[in-house]
Amino acid sequence: MTIDFKGSHYPKSVVLYAVFFYVRYGVSYRDLEEIMAERGVDVDHATLNRWVVKFSPQIAANAQVRKRPTACSWRMDETYIRVRGKWVYLYRAVDRDGQTLNFMLSENRDTAAARRFFKSAVSINRIPERIVIDKSGANLAGLQNLNVILKFTGVGRVIGIVQSKYLNNLVEQDHRFIKRITRPMLGFKAFHSAAATLAGIEAAHMIRKGQLGQTGTSAFKQFDALAG
Fold first, then answer.
1. How far is CA 106 from the centre of its chain?
2. pLDDT tens across 204-224, in order?
3. I want to staple 41 with a disulfide (CB 3.0 to 4.6 A). Which of 12, 36, 111, 132 is the partner?
4. Number of domains observed in the structure of the chain
5. 119 and 90 in one domain?
6. pTM of the model
7. Residues 47 and 31 in one domain
8. 130 CB contacts (<8 Å, ≥6 apart)?
9. Residue 105, domain extent
10. Counting beta carbons within 10 angstroms of the beta carbon of residue 219, is it exposed (0 to 12), middle (13 to 18) or buried (19 or more)?
11. 102-141 tens-digit pLDDT
12. Which CATH number is 107's domain given?
């Protein structure tokens, strides 16, 4: 999907550079405003925020479409993100090789949220052979509900479920990059902007892990290519 930059009042390259820098390196909008000024671009922090919120989800969606095939064994876990001074839940899944599969911000940590996350992950990726989760009853129930749907929609097979804290270390370690980037951002003021920003962070992380398969191409050029 080609992203439309009409109305931005700045060249596409400037907008994408600002968005990429924010989601990849973990700075505040005030800091990014100074960084852009040092490069001769006079843009205020509110405009930078609008760019990140508007374009990050579109870039992340394109990254999901263009990423390399992933393995059929998954690891799923949640981590915490602060929004409006309260903790919300970032659901994340990687495959056995640590490649990003799916991510979803949720205000609740319950069966409905888990089911919604698993359904989204399966729709984006192929149906896995198994998913490793922790001891969360909500995650187990959400995955079991998905299996019921698969069983009665003619898919012909269900997903194997493994509950193991030890086997889930891979996705827990992967959370660290996301938290390292969000920490200097000093929290999010709105749920929708948090979800949008995290999508951009996840897209930059996928590039960092080589999931777009463009070896020898700079991270920013890969990010730029996702805009079409």
1. 13
2. 999 999 999 888 899 999 999
3. 36
4. 2
5. yes
6. 0.95
7. yes
8. 72, 73, 74, 159, 160, 161, 162
9. 73-174
10. middle
11. 999 999 999 999 999 999 999 999 999 999 999 999 999 9
12. 3.30.420.10
